[in-house]
Task: inverse folding
């Protein structure tokens, strides 16, 4: 089933923040007068099978400048075999929405269109609870203030506090809500990411912090539906609705590139794991039932035969427990996390998963579905992005996730090669200092090290020419001669700067990347010293860098608790003689910049050693924003500055 | 000069002969075509050639066996690498929209390189190998082969000597070729026990309970450890290496003693306390296979092709017969100079048929037959035979697959008829 997201924009210039510079119909409608949109145009361009849609849209708006913007999703399908009719109803906006708007615009906002398809369809009913009950065609009641769970077409969808996001939202929402939802979910995902790096995922701190973030941002978690209790703040329904809609908005923003998709999937999966684990076993079963997730169980005889192996390969416990517990047998591809960590018994391509770990299979399902859905969303994205009002919003949302990527080279050419030794001692994080040292000692670094260190150097401002000179002079001191260097290594350095191959301008590695991907093996010096060194060696190293014994103890404690970034931050504080660094470290280049800032205002330090080159005017310059974007993105920026 | 002597300077002269008369093209094509089960499987496969002076040509692809032969005989590559099967013909990758050209499938591959064992072998270092340390490769193959077959359920594993200091494994099952990047890295990580770079001393840490896979692997290591580590490598023979071993057990001398004490105590009492695995950890750190995980992870990662020549040693990258794994000797593997010389030796008791220059470019079949006759006269023959046997096994699976498909088709047609 193909789920398509169609976004219709009705009217322009919402109240408040957004003042759109263009009149309504231009760029959207073409032929239909002001406020009149050729719906069919959208519908057809999005439906590959060219479904026949009888669709009409009329608008009540007469003055484009005062109308409110709305977005609506509709669902289409590429499957053959069903007929559909489109019904249109003009219904007033929800009252709570209206409240947020100035009264003057109420009239114009009070009509929007609900657009549903009535579908008769073969098969796939299982996956689609909405379709199986015949209530697909429904319009909202005029003035239905009571948003009880039962009184809504989406009830089925929101009957469990957790969902697989199989159905896109069908209702219309205002641009304001669109933005708020998106930003808040993004904040949640950012929290998930940050906590995932700092804490063990099942630890109490992780759970507590995520808990509080959930309630701060009003997302649904844990709580069962309980209509009898008086609610403080948004109702459970609203939370679930927000969870649902915001997820789909971010899908739009995060489907565009491989990197974005990976990040989004990772965070959503972590979020889902957390929420699933919060459920009690009854609601877990309910959830599985609602989503038609059935897995093969292992027979008692087989369990008896494999008993010893099952015990030794999981944390399932004693033999009797193995017998009373259900084991699920799935292809190993469906439980990669368990395979990777050897936490499961593996035989002939199948893993035997104890019931307590069922979350792994569910997560895998979730991941696969999300990944497929994102690929589909990406395909229909051009149509969505052709709307000039959404495009900047979505692209800004997607840029917000990494924070700064330290690829914008504000400082290109401001570092001379002679400075590097000095800077390595003063301002390099331990990982880079370690790489620098072993490069100087062995006159060689293996690929992983060259990438991590090379991109870092690029990030602090080495030009391509400098980089080539730097690596060449060091490598040729070792076993590599000039000729071999030019043949075997120069290419990869130019590649790093986006001058070879697919010409990607690679960005320096973040702490996340250094800690989580490509761990060092024999002969490697890259990675995060706090993560990848033996405690004993780390201790020696810190001692040799003259870190105080009490400081070392503090750092080692943090390392023990797997807070590698915090350990690095502690190292920063100790080596810079400050109490509190006042930033949260997530990038080696950030470490460098902060250190430079601290050591006498950054540029001054550089000027000391490198006097005549640049004046202060070459300093940090904001990349120019398109005017229309500037206003909108300001808010978003504020959200993510500390993220 | 003995026949095994190889001089890298001769390579440009030998390669044309090798590709013209010895390279087993038909088996090679038979392998990579996988019975034609999937359309364009061979045609969308990336080959990459390393030419003289390290000139590297990527994204080569060929529509037929003949085209591959012709191109290889023209280019005479020093080294051949095999890459992924792509969504489009790799030689046309520039003509398709960027982003749509994607690596879809590849064999699951493993690369084990002797240099990764440098901290635990005393006999040689870097690119050198000897009979002593080759045992490490034998252990590695035993362990991985068992795990890939029994744990992961793969059947078609082609083990290949890389030509110098390591071995490669090509897992050719359909399921393996279709694995995602995430799945490949999960498999590789499942199989990796030795972790950490130069900054880590204790690279194997076991925790309770011991996973069956580790148990099985330990059984293999135990079989070889006394002979290999204690006698060949003599790890407990001199102070330096003894210190290295001891460093793995415990740093602090007092703790080390107490650990020994508890160990002795437990031994006496006959119960081994949980978490006391340091003798196992030491054995694994010294003998357990060290994988280059990055090679296995990427779908688009290139790996040196079987029957490619190693430019430094001149040895042919040949398949290893698992039934005689313990007898495999890397120094017995023929060099390109040896087999070319064998080719020139006068044949005994057989009519001498010179390759006539006029016949060049004539009927494919005669060329093919001649080539078969040619390699059969050299020491390459037994290795081609190993590949042949391997391919027979793969073909069995294809047969099953094709039968299943046609069966499905028949039932579908049958039911349609009934209707």
Result:
């Amino acid at each position: 089933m193909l789920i398509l997201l169609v976004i219709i924009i009705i009217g322009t210039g919402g109240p408040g923040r957004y003042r759109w510079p263009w009149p309504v119909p231009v760029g959207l409608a073409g032929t239909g007068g002001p406020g009149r949109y050729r719906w069919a145009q959208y519908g057809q361009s999005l439906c590959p099978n060219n479904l026949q849609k009888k669709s009409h849209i009329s608008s009540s708006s007469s003055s484009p400048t005062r109308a409110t913007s709305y977005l609506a999703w509709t669902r289409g399908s590429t499957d053959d075999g069903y007929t559909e009719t489109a019904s249109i109803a003009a219904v007033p906006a929800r009252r709570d929405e209206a409240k947020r708007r100035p009264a003057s615009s109420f009239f114009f906002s009070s009509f929007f269109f609900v657009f549903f398809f009535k579908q008769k369809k073969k098969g796939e009913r299982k996956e689609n609870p909405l379709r199986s009950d015949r209530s697909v065609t429904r319009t909202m009641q005029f003035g239905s203030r009571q948003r009880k769970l039962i009184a809504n077409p989406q009830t089925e969808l929101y009957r469990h506090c957790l969902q697989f996001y199989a159905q896109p939202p069908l209702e219309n929402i205002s641009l304001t809500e669109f933005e708020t939802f998106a930003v808040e979910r993004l904040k949640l995902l950012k929290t998930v990411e940050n906590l995932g790096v700092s804490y063990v995922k099942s630890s109490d701190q992780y759970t507590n912090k995520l808990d509080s973030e959930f309630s701060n941002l009003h997302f649904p978690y844990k709580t069962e539906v309980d209509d009898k209790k008086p609610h403080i703040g948004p109702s459970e329904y609203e939370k679930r609705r927000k969870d649902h809609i915001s997820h789909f908005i971010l899908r739009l923003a995060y489907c565009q590139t491989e990197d974005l998709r990976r990040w989004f999937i990772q965070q959503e999966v972590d979020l889902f794991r957390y929420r699933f684990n919060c459920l009690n076993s009854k609601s877990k079963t309910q959830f599985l039932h609602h989503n038609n997730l059935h897995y093969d169980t292992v027979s008692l005889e087989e369990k008896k035969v494999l008993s010893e192996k099952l015990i030794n390969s999981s944390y399932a416990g004693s033999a009797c427990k193995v017998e009373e517990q259900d084991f699920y047998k799935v292809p190993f591809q469906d439980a990669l996390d368990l395979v990777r960590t050897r936490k499961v018994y593996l035989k002939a391509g199948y893993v035997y998963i104890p019931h307590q770990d069922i979350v792994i299979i569910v997560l895998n399902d979730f991941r696969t579905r999300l990944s497929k859905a994102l690929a589909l969303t990406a395909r229909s994205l051009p149509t969505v992005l052709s709307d000039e009002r959404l495009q900047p919003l979505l692209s800004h949302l997607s840029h917000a996730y990494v924070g700064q990527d330290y690829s914008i080279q504000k400082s290109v050419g401001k570092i001379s090669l002679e400075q590097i030794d000095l800077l390595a001692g003063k301002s390099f994080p331990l990982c880079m200092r370690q790489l620098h040292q072993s490069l100087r000692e062995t006159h060689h670094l293996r690929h992983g090290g060259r990438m991590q260190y090379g991109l870092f150097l690029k990030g602090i401002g080495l030009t391509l020419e400098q980089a080539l000179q730097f690596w060449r002079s060091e490598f040729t001191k070792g076993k590599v001669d000039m000729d071999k260097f030019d043949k075997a290594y120069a290419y990869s350095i130019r590649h790093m700067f986006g001058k070879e191959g697919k010409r990607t301008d690679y960005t320096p590695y973040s702490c996340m990347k250094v800690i989580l991907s490509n761990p060092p093996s024999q002969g490697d010096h890259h990675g995060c010293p706090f993560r990848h060194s033996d405690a004993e060696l780390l201790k020696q190293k810190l001692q040799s860098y003259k870190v105080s014994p009490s400081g070392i103890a503090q750092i080692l404690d943090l390392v023990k608790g797997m807070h590698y970034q915090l350990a690095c931050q502690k190292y920063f504080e100790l080596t810079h003689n400050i109490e509190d660094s006042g930033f949260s470290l997530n990038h080696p280049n950030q470490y460098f910049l902060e250190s430079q800032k601290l050591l006498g205002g950054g540029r001054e330090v550089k000027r000391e050693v490198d006097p005549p080159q640049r004046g202060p005017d070459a300093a940090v310059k904001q990349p120019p924003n398109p005017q229309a974007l500037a206003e909108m993105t300001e808010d978003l920026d504020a959200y993510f500055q500390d993220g | 000069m003995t026949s095994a002597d190889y001089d890298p300077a001769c390579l440009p002269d030998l390669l044309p002969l090798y590709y013209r008369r010895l390279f087993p093209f038909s088996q090679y094509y038979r392998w990579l075509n996988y019975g034609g089960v999937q359309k364009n499987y061979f045609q969308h496969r990336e080959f990459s050639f390393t030419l003289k002076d390290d000139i590297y040509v990527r994204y080569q692809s060929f529509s037929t066996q003949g085209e591959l032969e012709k191109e290889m005989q023209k280019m005479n590559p020093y080294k051949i690498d095999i890459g992924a099967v792509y969504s489009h013909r790799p030689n046309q990758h520039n003509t398709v929209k960027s982003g749509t050209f994607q690596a879809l499938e590849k064999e699951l591959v493993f690369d084990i390189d002797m240099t990764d064992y440098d901290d635990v072998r005393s006999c040689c270092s870097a690119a050198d190998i000897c009979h002593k340390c080759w045992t490490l490769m034998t252990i590695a193959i035993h362990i991985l082969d068992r795990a890939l077959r029994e744990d992961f359920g793969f059947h078609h594993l082609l083990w290949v000597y890389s030509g110098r200091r390591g071995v490669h494994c090509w897992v050719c099952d359909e399921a393996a070729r279709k694995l995602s990047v995430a799945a490949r890295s999960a498999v590789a990580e499942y199989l990796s026990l030795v972790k950490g770079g130069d900054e880590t001393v204790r690279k194997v840490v076991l925790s309770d309970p011991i996973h069956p896979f580790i148990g099985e692997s330990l059984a293999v290591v135990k079989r070889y450890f006394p002979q290999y580590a204690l006698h060949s490598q003599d790890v407990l023979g001199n102070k330096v290496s003894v210190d290295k071993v001891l460093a793995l057990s415990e740093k602090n001398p007092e703790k080390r003693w107490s650990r020994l004490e508890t160990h002795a105590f437990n031994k006496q009492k006959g119960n081994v306390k949980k978490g006391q695995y340091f003798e196992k950890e030491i054995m694994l750190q010294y003998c357990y296979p060290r994988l280059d995980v990055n090679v296995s992870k990427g779908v688009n990662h290139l790996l040196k092709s079987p029957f490619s020549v190693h430019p430094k040693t001149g040895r042919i990258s040949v398949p290893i017969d698992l039934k005689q794994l313990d007898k495999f000797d890397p120094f017995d593997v023929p060099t390109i100079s040896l087999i070319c010389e064998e080719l020139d030796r006068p044949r005994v008791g057989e009519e001498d048929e010179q390759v006539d220059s006029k016949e060049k470019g004539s009927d494919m079949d005669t060329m093919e037959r001649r080539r078969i006759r040619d390699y059969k006269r050299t020491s390459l023959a037994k290795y081609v035979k190993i590949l042949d046997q391997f391919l027979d096994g793969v073909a069995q699976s294809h047969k099953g697959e094709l039968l299943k498909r046609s069966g499905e088709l028949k039932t579908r047609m049958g039911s349609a008829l009934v209707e």
User: Anything to note?
Assistant: The two ends of chain A are 37 Å apart (CA to CA).
